[in-house]
Write a structure and sequence with these properties.
alpha+beta
Length: about 180
C-alpha cells in the first residue's frame, strides 16, 4: 500500500499500538520484554502480509511492477485500502459494541477496562481535525530534523484538501500536527 491511504493506515496502526501500550493486551505474560514478539501476533502479521518467508531455493513470483505516476500510486493505494477495510469488516476487528475490548488479527485483544482513568480513544479528534503530537529537535545539532514535520504538514494539508481523511460518516478532517 502506497500513497495517502498508506499514511492513514499507518496512523491507525500507530494508534492501536499506543492503545496497546497504554492499556495492555489480553493474553500476554508478565515475563515478556520489548525484544519479545508474541508468536500469535507474529504469525497473524505474516499471514496478513501474504505468508511467511520462503525457504532458500524455493520458487518465488516476480514482484509487481511499481506504478509509474503519482496518479497510479494513488489508484493503487485506494484499491489496497479498500481490501484492508473489507478484511477488517469481514473479520469483525476493531472496538467491540460495548466498548470494552479491541480485537485484531490472530486473536489480538486489548482490554480497554485496564486503561488509566481519564483515558479516551477520541482524544484529539473533533469533527474538523485530528491532532497528532510529534517530537523533534528544533535547535542544536539535530535541528535539521525539525524540517521533517514541516514537510509532513504540507503532505497532510495536500491530502486533506483532496478528502483523504474522510471517515465512514463522510466527515473530512485536517491533520493538526503538534510539534
Amino acid at each position: 500500500m502506497k500513497g495517502p491511504r498508506l499514511k492513514v493506515a499507518i496512523a491507525v496502526l500507530a494508534g492501536l499500538a499506543l492503545v496497546a501500550g497504554a492499556c495492555g493486551s489480553g493474553g500476554g505474560s508478565d515475563n515478556s520484554t520489548q525484544a519479545t514478539v508474541d508468536p500469535g501476533i507474529k504469525s497473524g502479521v505474516a499471514a496478513a502480509l501474504g505468508g511467511s518467508t520462503t525457504a532458500a531455493g524455493s520458487a518465488t513470483t516476480a514482484p509487481a511492477k511499481d506504478p509509474a505516476s503519482w496518479d497510479e500510486w494513488e489508484k493503487l493505494a485506494t484499491t489496497e485500502r479498500a481490501a484492508v477495510v473489507q478484511k477488517i469488516k469481514d473479520n469483525k476487528w476493531g472496538k467491540s459494541a460495548d466498548g470494552k475490548t479491541v480485537t485484531g488479527p490472530a486473536g489480538f485483544t486489548i482490554d480497554l477496562s485496564k486503561c488509566p482513568a481519564g483515558w479516551s480513544d477520541t482524544e484529539g479528534l473533533s469533527d474538523t481535525e485530528i491532532k497528532i503530537g510529534h517530537t523533534t529537535a528544533q535547535s542544536g545539532t539535530l535541528a535539521d530534523y525539525g524540517n521533517i514535520p514541516k514537510a509532513m504538514n504540507l503532505v497532510y494539508d495536500y491530502y486533506a484538501a483532496k478528502g483523504a481523511f474522510t471517515d465512514s460518516n463522510g466527515k473530512n478532517r485536517k491533520i493538526n500536527l503538534l510539534i
